[in-house]
Fold this sequence. Notes:
Layout: E1 2-5, E2 13-18, H1 34-51, E3 58-60, E4 76-80
Antiparallel strand pairs: 1-2, 2-4, 3-4
Amino acid sequence: MIAFYDIKPKAKVHVLLVPKKHIKSLADTTPEDKEIIGQLLGRVRSLAEKLGIAEGFNIVINNGVQAGQAIPHLHLHILSGWKYRDEL
């Protein structure tokens, strides 16, 4: 898998995590992809720690164009950096 910053970030921190195996979308996964999905989710924790966002982040997986998936390759969005209301 590979991780990189989104070129059009939707949050202060916006990283994409992409498996090297081509899978069009989450809906196109098969039982054989269970290990890849587990590895992706398992990698989020260490990546969040490296990014300094382990205390709070969102994971988003867009599935299909109607859900905003612009690239037909499964990937996770890791987002963080919002301020809480009491911190404003």
